[in-house]
Design brief:
It contains 3 helices and 5 strands, in the order βββββααα. By secondary structure, the chain is of the alpha+beta class. The protein has a single domain, classed as 2-Layer Sandwich (Hypothetical Cytosolic Protein, Chain: A).
Amino acid sequence: MAINKTKGVAGSRNTPPQRRCVGCRQMLDKKELLRVVKSPNGEFVIDETGKAAGRGAYICKGEGCVKALVKGRGLDRSFKGKVPVEIYEEIAAKPLVPRNNGE
């Protein structure tokens, strides 16, 4: 079996897609992250399905990560504009997962 040199191991079919968390900057499986979307009409929503149309930013559900995101306004940087406070409040209200990866 030949290995595709352009994709390597990370592009194999067995590897789940990975995305970088806006808060802690770690690469995690896409399914473990919460997606915030800016829709084409400029509306911000939390995308539970991961399939909504628009520009997306990902955040892990770790306690420290969510707190850092809210404090540092990380979504504002990701979307290069002002994100409504309600979105940050909605993210903070989600159930958090304590993580033991240095947070």
